[in-house]
Write the structure tokens for this entry.
Amino acid sequence: MPVALVDQLYFTRESWRIGLTGLTEREAETAFDPQNSISWMVGHLAAHEQTLWLKIAQGHELDTTVNLCRPGQPAVNPPYDAMLAAWEQIIVAANTYLDALTPQDLQGFLTLNNEPMRESIGTMLHRLIYHYWYHLGELQAIRQQLGHTDLPQFIGRIPESAQYRINP
């Protein structure tokens, strides 16, 4: 069983998936200036996960197209289906690493260029979870601008998926 904080990431991803439900490619690729498109957000979160859990933690990348959605890159509206497929592939690969983490690992630091990173693995998990929630709010706002009216009114399925527990 993954550590509790990893479970929170998985719950957050489930909430992200719920927020994407019912979108068309055209809608996901629409940008309301100055906001980015939803397809960009999917690629952006995929790039964040890939950077942390695949590139830095394990030394490899699965899909370099998501790097178009990294901070500092020119604005793009990438194909939604490609970004969603990349996100799915990246999180499946990331889960192998995340599922093996222990509570002690969360206090440790990944290394980049032979130097420990400034944030612990646990802090990076927190940052990623909060990053998802930031974009989930933005996603809901864009869906409202697109005219969607039947949006989720609460945060996920907490009783089934996010019960409080203490790590063993």
Strands lie at 111-112, 115-116. The chain has a mean pLDDT of 92. The two ends are 9 Å apart (CA to CA). Residues 19 and 152 are 7 Å apart (CA to CA).
